[in-house]
Design brief:
The complex is a heterodimer.
Chain A lengths: L1 H10 L2 E3 L2 E3 L3 E4 L6 H11 L3 E8 L20 E4 L7 H17 L7 E4 L12 H13 L3 E6 L3 H9 L4 E4 L13 H12 L8 E3 L5 H10 L3 E4 L1 H4 L4 H21 L25
Parallel strand pairs in A: 3-4, 3-10, 4-5, 6-7, 7-8, 9-10
Antiparallel strand pairs in A: 1-2
Helix pairs in contact in A: 2-9, 3-4, 5-6, 7-9
Chain B lengths: L6 E6 L2 E6 L4 H7 L8 E4 L2 E2 L15 E9 L2
Parallel strand pairs in B: 1-5
Antiparallel strand pairs in B: 1-2, 3-4, 3-5
The chains are: A alpha/beta, B mainly beta.
């Protein structure tokens, strides 16, 4: 069966902008107990792409370890985010600094960004107006923009029209582990964005709690899943990372396999004819 | 840094700093021990590309943001 999986994966490219990823799982690098644990989780997840954040260099601790020493930047595509930004202008500044760093590292991730413009710190829900504005600014500046957004189909459409390379609706609030709360809205987003453009990347970003959430997202027809907390804060992040790898694989195969229709009543799997009877039929 | 030079007051990552007149960005980064890979510099909210660091002279009142990569989702 492994051969079937391998051949399916090879034929099943995940293209986002000008990047082709060999895994449909994008993993965050935050909230691990240690860099070593993060590195092992990345390996176990099989991901080709990890997100990273841009923050002030510490003023008084030059001996502090750098995450770059624990990321295999030759083989991993880095996806810088604008996490923590609450307006379009700050998000654009943050994206440009991320691009500058990745250019210096000669990492191909320099040309893209995970755009996150938040509305407030309690919900961490995106500010839709600022997100659209930032998308336009960044697209004009040559970025491939992967947009974190809510499950609102209209905003998703606006972001695609603004030139977003991928739209990434949240399944539920960031770090909540609630999974996919509004399947119906997410299905509308998928239908809308892929209607005349089936290869347009739509990715679930945020809210995943466990592997079954990932499988459901992939079964619904999402092209990939981006998650962080569900692995980093699991009791055993390395085991959970592998579960996510398999969840993505299972969900994607199920999507390609094509699920049966749901029915109200039973339908026997064994033939009706040829069932044995008792000696004295009533 | 010699004392006969004029001093400039700047802000780096939110904290005040005094540097000699004529200091370049490259020299500032070296002094702060931030001259390593994985750094980006913004001055007065405009990105300052690394190819400019050798000749961009720090000016009085400059507002620096010096950033690096950290774990994030």
């Amino acid at each position: 069966m492994d051969n079937v999986l391998v051949s399916c994966e090879q034929a099943d490219e995940f293209k986002v902008g000008n990047h082709v990823l060999h895994s449909r799982l994008i993993l965050g690098t935050g909230k691990y107990d240690s860099f070593e644990e993060m590195r092992q989780a990345i390996e176990a997840s099989g991901t080709a792409c990890v997100t990273i954040a841009v923050r002030r260099e510490r003023l008084h601790d030059s001996s502090g370890r750098n995450i770059l020493d624990y990321l295999d930047a030759d083989n991993l595509l880095l996806l810088p985010n604008t996490a923590g930004c609450y307006d379009a202008e700050t998000a654009v500044r943050c994206a440009r600094m991320g691009r500058e760093i990745l250019r210096g590292l000669e990492n191909p991730g320099a040309n893209w960004v995970k755009l996150e413009v938040l509305g407030d710190s309690r919900t961490l829900l995106p500010d839709p107006i600022e997100t659209v504005k930032a998308t336009e600014l960044l697209v004009n500046d040559g970025f491939q923009v992967l947009c974190y957004t809510s499950d609102d189909p209209i905003i998703a459409r606006r972001l695609k029209n603004a030139g977003a390379t991928a739209v990434m609706p949240a399944g539920s609030p960031i770090g909540s582990g609630l999974g996919i709360l509004n399947q119906n809205s997410l299905q509308i987003i998928l239908e809308d964005l892929k209607n005349d453009d089936p290869d347009y990347p739509v990715i679930v970003d945020a809210g995943v709690g466990t592997a079954s959430d990932v499988a459901i997202a992939m079964e619904l027809g999402f092209d990939g899943v981006l998650l962080n907390t569900a692995v980093a804060r699991a009791k055993n992040p390395i085991k959970m990372a592998e579960a996510m790898r398999l969840g993505v694989k299972a969900g994607r195969l199920a999507r390609l396999g094509g699920r049966i229709n749901k029915a109200k009543y039973a339908a026997a799997s064994s033939p009706d004819v040829g069932v044995i009877t008792s000696r004295d039929p009533k | 840094m010699s004392d006969n030079k004029n001093k400039l007051e700047i802000t780096v990552n939110g904290e005040p700093l005094v540097v000699d007149e004529g200091t370049t960005v490259t020299q500032l980064l070296a002094r702060m021990q931030m001259n390593r890979r994985g750094i980006a510099v913004e001055i007065n909210q405009q990105l300052e590309p690394r190819e400019n660091h050798d000749h961009r002279i720090v000016e009085h009142g400059d507002w620096f943001e010096i950033v690096t990569l950290v774990g994030g989702g």
